[in-house]
Design goal:
It is a single chain. By secondary structure, the chain is an all-beta fold. It is built from no helices and eleven strands. The chain is globular and about 40 Å long.
């Protein structure tokens, strides 16, 4: 299962972007999903997670209050609304589907990954 992430781009500090992640058919509808990011020269880090039914969400402290995760199971799609972007948000963003109904922040909890979409925030 390969997820398809999109929506990245080059923006200025303070701008907004919305990332999308499409899961093939209904494969992910019973699975938790999440977003991770990796900046050049840095390790991959957790950004946000959402449970299969959207009842639970989790955010990294660095994005809390600025990013919002959501999903539309009817469209097999997860979103990440990113507001008030900062240069330190610059990274490739990866979406992932968890092995179960909730993935939380551990990358090992996720079985399926997308190819990444690049977000660049200029100061």
């Amino acid at each position: 299962v390969l997820l398809q992430a999109s929506g990245g781009g080059l923006v200025q500090a303070g701008d907004s972007l919305r990332l999308s992640c499409v899961c093939p058919r209904r494969t992910c509808n019973n699975n938790g999903m999440g977003w991770f990011r990796q900046a050049p020269g840095k390790e991959r880090e957790f950004v946000s997670a959402i449970s299969w039914n959207s009842a639970s969400t989790l955010y990294a402290d660095s994005v809390k209050g600025r990013f919002t995760i959501s999903r539309d199971n009817a469209k097999n799609t997860m979103y990440l609304q990113m507001n008030s972007l900062k240069p330190e948000d610059t990274a490739s963003y990866y979406c992932a589907a968890a092995r179960g109904a909730w993935g939380s922040r551990g990358a090992d909890n996720y079985a399926y990954w997308g190819q990444g979409t690049l977000v660049t925030v200029s100061s």
